[in-house]
Specification:
- It is a single chain.
- This protein is mainly alpha-helical.
- The protein has 3 helices and no strands.
- It has a domain at about 1-20 and about 45-120.
- The chain is about 70% helix and about 0% strand.
- Helix 1 (about 1-20) runs antiparallel to helix 2 and helix 2 runs antiparallel to helix 3 (about 85-125).
- Keywords: Signal.
């Protein structure tokens, strides 16, 4: 009988620590960037788009896991304190936020990956006429014999 009570009292602590670990932020300020002399920033490469999209998918999954753990932790705490309605509410809220975060990250990431892939595939076709000049006259046709 003692084991379930200990397990129920330790579970919220474990999930709370897991959620806190997901939301850790660095206290260091990023180094200042030098001022650019150009008026417009560089466009990201196709590989950069794919990499950024993969990062967005990972960010969405991480945020979703954090919200799910937070909801489960709060729900377990409410269950231990004999508030079953609050427990179900917190678990449902955590699951809903997790689904939203995973969905948003997946859609944004997939869009960036598709954009990068499209740019990589289209590059040979769009830049093939770069060496030809518009002012050049076409070569003379051979006279019929």
């Amino acid at each position: 009988m003692r084991t379930p009570v200990v397990l129920l009292s330790v579970t919220p602590l474990v999930f709370g620590l897991a959620a806190m670990g997901q939301n850790s932020s660095s206290s260091q300020a990023p180094p200042p960037k030098p001022a650019q002399s150009q008026s417009q920033p560089h466009q990201r490469s196709a590989g950069g788009d794919v990499g950024s999209g993969s990062g967005d998918i990972g960010k969405g999954a991480g945020k979703g896991a954090g919200h799910a753990a937070e909801g489960v932790g709060k729900g377990a705490g409410d269950l231990v304190t004999l508030h079953p309605i609050g427990a179900a509410e917190n678990v449902g809220k955590g699951a809903g936020e997790a689904g939203k975060d995973v969905g948003v990250g997946t859609v944004k990431g997939t869009g960036k990956i598709a954009k990068g892939t499209g740019r990589a595939v289209a590059k040979p076709f769009h830049h093939s006429k770069k060496s030809e000049s518009k002012d050049a006259t076409p070569p003379p046709a051979e006279p019929p014999q």
